């Protein structure tokens, strides 16, 4: 989840360079131009994600005109791809959806994804929504047959750099989230496996998760994650 986005452009550049053969090394200026352009787009993507997160925290709508004016320097040509990548990053990493306020308008509102109402922002000092990780946890439970042993949960989350007892740069200390905060908010159940000795623990969906979202919505989220290259996720 910490890999930079827009890798397809970079891969395309490298394949083009290989196809052109060794003679291209004699023209460094031509090689540098695509790299500089890709870096510029990445920077605009980073700025747009940060801008949209600010709008989410402030509970303010935004518009295409405002994004072009305040973030993208009027770059109409690249707006569609930058905006699409920013929206996917917000949903998959932070659990925030960007949607049109009206079907035919250029005004957008931001809300937590999949109908969930909790984002983990408990104070003004906390600035990063954690709903994206909650959806991943719910998905792991769902794929485990509605129940995930604790060791399996940490193995799955470890694959994306989220480890118990280790501070994550986006989500903070995950053990506290999974075994305390989200249990308290009734999104998860954390219980001892019946008859286990020594005691082992497992995670299940809590009543609030069942009330606010559905298995079909979470499965749709899983499908969307799996069809994307890992490099669609953004490094902060």
Automatic annotation (TrEMBL):
GO terms for cellular component: nucleus. Residues 41-236 form the MAGE domain. One of its GO terms (biological process) is negative regulation of transcription by RNA polymerase II. Residues 1-37 are annotated as: Disordered. Gene3D superfamilies: MAGE homology domain, winged helix WH1 motif, MAGE homology domain, winged helix WH2 motif. Residues 7-37 have a biased composition (Low complexity). InterPro entries: MAGE (IPR037445), MAGE_WH1 (IPR041898), MAGE_WH2 (IPR041899), MHD_dom (IPR002190). This is Melanoma-associated antigen 10. It comes from Galemys pyrenaicus (Iberian desman).
């Amino acid at each position: 989840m910490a890999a930079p986005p827009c890798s397809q452009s970079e891969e395309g550049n490298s394949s083009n360079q290989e196809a052109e053969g060794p003679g291209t090394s004699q023209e460094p200026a031509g090689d540098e131009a695509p790299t500089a352009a890709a870096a510029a787009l990445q920077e605009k993507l980073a700025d747009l994600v940060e801008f949209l997160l600010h709008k989410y925290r402030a509970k303010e709508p935004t518009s295409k005109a405002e994004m072009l004016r305040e973030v993208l320097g009027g770059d109409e040509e690249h707006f569609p791809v930058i905006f699409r990548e920013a929206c996917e990053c917000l949903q998959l990493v932070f659990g925030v959806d960007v949607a049109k306020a009206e079907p035919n308008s250029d005004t957008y509102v931001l809300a937590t994804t999949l109908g969930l109402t909790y984002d983990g922002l408990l104070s003004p000092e906390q600035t990063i929504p954690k709903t994206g990780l909650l959806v991943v946890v719910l998905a792991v439970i769902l794929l485990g047959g509605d129940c995930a042993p604790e060791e399996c949960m940490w193995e799955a989350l470890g694959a994306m750099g989220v480890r118990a007892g280790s501070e994550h740069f986006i989500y903070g200390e995950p053990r506290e989230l999974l075994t305390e905060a989200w249990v308290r908010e009734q999104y998860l159940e954390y219980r001892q496996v019946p008859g286990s000795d020594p005691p082992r623990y497992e995670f299940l969906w809590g009543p609030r998760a069942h009330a606010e979202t559905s298995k079909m919505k979470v499965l749709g989220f899983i499908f969307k994650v799996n069809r994307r290259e890992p490099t669609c996720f953004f490094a902060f």
